[in-house]
Hints:
Layout: H1 3-10, E1 15-16, H2 26-30, H3 42-58, E2 65-70, H4 74-85, E3 92-95, H5 99-110, E4 115-118, H6 127-136, E5 141-145, E6 147-148, E7 153-154, H7 157-167, E8 170-174, E9 193-197, E10 209-214, H8 218-224, H9 232-242, H10 251-267, H11 269-289, E11 293-294, E12 305-309, H12 318-327, E13 330-331, E14 333-334, E15 342-346, H13 353-368
Parallel strand pairs: 1-13, 3-4, 3-5, 5-8, 8-9
Antiparallel strand pairs: 2-10, 6-7, 9-10, 11-12, 12-15, 14-15
Amino acid sequence: MNFEEHISKSVDRKILLNPGPGTTSSRVKEAMIVPDICPREQEFGEVMHKISEGLLEIGNGLTTHEVALFVASGTGAMEACLVSAIGKKDKALILTNGAYGIRMTHICDRFNLPYERRFSFGDYPDPEEVEKALESGSFTHLAMIHHETSTGMMNPLEEISGICRKHGVRLIVDAMSSYGAYPIDLKNTQVDYLFSSSNKCIQGMAGLSYVIFSKERLEELKSNSGGYYFDVYGQWNNLQTKDQLRFTPPVQICYAFLAAIQETLQEGLLKRWDRYQSNWQLFYDGLRELGFSFFLSEKYESKILLAIRLDSKPDLDFNHFHDYLYEHGVTIYPGVIPECQTFRVAVIGDLHQEDIEYAVSLMKDYFSADK
Ligand SMILES: Cc1ncc(COP(=O)(O)O)c(C=O)c1O
């Protein structure tokens, strides 16, 4: 029996519906079992280069963009990107229509980076309003979340990118919970900066995050860099010139991430995106049949995550429901929307039709049985 078979037989398969870290494949788990190696060795440097190239290939950015890798969760990449891209004399327009857009303002506050914010929790960032905002102020950057994981809204990346290009404004995109699933085309969409992490739609383990940036922004990054650990230019430059990260990487997580990147490329972005969307649809239909309603109207849904209103089932004890599903191998996630009680299910991870059907049938059993 090879390792992969051994793992798929000996490690219980869990269905994680929290928005990452998600369910990983046996191959990704297996990739962590490697001979010990010092991360300063050339052989390991090659792994880091392969990760960087794979990340660019996923977004069709091999000829136009570069990558800086960080040993951090997604918020680390968010901080690295903002403090490295935005200078003290710049001004960013931040779209704050959910928890993660708001998080970017907290980072800017902490580092005294000038910004203005637009939109409130759950608003759709209408491109016309975004354009008006850009016309009204002297903005150098616009920072937005692509998929707002707190609500499940897919923000209009391509339209906003066109507006930024027209106004000569640099675009910063948090694609934490879309990169690797939604086919983003870095070559043909103006995206100056984009960040994400290893444990969302690329389906790796948690521990690494990354900032992808346009080659045209290299000089700007070099002069603006306001972080020490979180210095995008420094981190990228070290790997290019010394074939190492500046600081100790989580070796085994890197091997798993490389395997997850390879799986993403093998599946192909279009197929993965179809899989996510059809998995999402199974939840949408199943939960609606159970009498649930949703926070967003369907046209704004990302089809990666659903925020489900708890007031559509006033008698439901969420914790009890969670525990029942958890005992049966399925994990659901609480919501974070102010003034609206919700819970969330996401289809991020190595999940397939039979997994979703199993989860929905468990939910149906829960409501049909006398608890
Ligand atoms: C859109 C978005 N941005 C940032 C983050 C922060 O990532 P982390 O929790 O890994 O720091 C998340 C986490 O879910 C996210 O969904």
